[in-house]
Amino acid sequence: SDTITILGLESSCDDTAAAVVRAGDKTEILASVVAGQTDLHAEFGGVVPEIAARAHVEKLDLCVEEALAQSGMTLSDLDAIAVTAGPGLIGGVLAGVMMAKGLSAATGLPLIGVNHLAGHALTPRLTDGAAYPYLMLLVSGGHCQFLIVKGPEDFTRLGGTIDDAPGEAFDKTARLLALPQPGGPAVETEAAMGDPKRFRLPRPLLDRPGCDMSFSGLKTALLRERDKIVTVKGGITVQDRADLCAGFQAAVADVLAEKSRRALAEYMALSPAEPLLAVAGGVAANIAIRAALETVCGEAGAEFLAPPLALCTDNAAMIAWAGIERYRAGHTDDLTLAARPRWPL
Ligand code: KG4
Ligand code: ZN
């Protein structure tokens, strides 16, 4: 039959994940297991590659067992094993690739190496059956780019960050203001109580054409404002902090909105039948940013799509799905599959 069932593995950053996805007349996520590592890295203020790799090695087999159990599948029900082969922290990527190779060697199932970014970029097809082409804005802790997605292996990058990713900027802002990690949700909560107009933070690169972005300067500007208050008052109040967060979030939202407007214009020139801007990545959880993007889409005459958060952030269902698309295109790998720390789309 045409039904394809694939086991996907993901271990390129700080989430160990395994999922089973079946695609036929309809597409079903039969299981999607994600084991995070936030606690392990908390005291270091960032992901420690060596600790991440060891945790992946410890958890991958358990995640696979659990995903198979939840899906009611055994290895013999599968058509292939898909695995993130990059880009990412190489120790973690290697752990996943070795696990997938072991399973492939033991079962004879084809192995499919998936680009992690392609996994994010193809998620709107998994969740909503989006038709090619569509515009994707990937905004996470590690990535920030616009892609026109034209096929499972056909992406046009329109621009992206030239320094920090927005999630990273949220995390650093939280650290500067003594808020907990991950910074995004904490800063968003504060921002809801603040005045976004009190501190006028810069909107980097808006004066330059194109879709490139920059977020590292925002953090410096924020630090300067904070230190000014500290010099005058000896510390910052709860309201100061909320206003700083609101100003920061408004600046990020403005930059993402204006650059999305430009990316949409380039993409709309392709005359897509049902124009769509989809987002992926943890920052897509931010309500103010979502609202700004939705407005831009409305003005441009495009649909806006934000998949469920669990499928916006790192997961293995997106890897299994990207594997299904590659499998259908007849592209499988063998045991020579390499793990790649860098792998632009
Ligand atoms: O996609 P993700 O889970 O992991 C990767 O970066 O791969 O994204 C995590 C990032 C973190 O930097 C986190 O602070 C940010 O997404 N984030 C948010 C929000 N929730 C998570 N940023 C802004 N607003 C939020 N509500
Ligand atoms: Zn990711």
UniProtKB/TrEMBL annotation:
Keyword Ion transport (UniProt): no
Cofactor(s) the protein requires to work: Fe(2+)
Cofactor note: Binds 1 Fe(2+) ion per subunit.
Molecular function per GO: tRNA N(6)-L-threonylcarbamoyladenine synthase activity
Binding site for substrate: L138, V139, S140, G141, G142, D171, G184, E188, N286
Subcellular location: Cytoplasm
Functional note: Required for the formation of a threonylcarbamoyl group on adenosine at position 37 (t(6)A37) in tRNAs that read codons beginning with adenine. Is involved in the transfer of the threonylcarbamoyl moiety of threonylcarbamoyl-AMP (TC-AMP) to the N6 group of A37, together with TsaE and TsaB. TsaD likely plays a direct catalytic role in this reaction.
Family: Belongs to the KAE1 / TsaD family.
Protein name, entry field: tRNA N6-adenosine threonylcarbamoyltransferase
Organism: Maritimibacter dapengensis
Lineage of producing organism: Bacteria, Pseudomonadati, Pseudomonadota, Alphaproteobacteria, Rhodobacterales
Name of encoding gene: tsaD
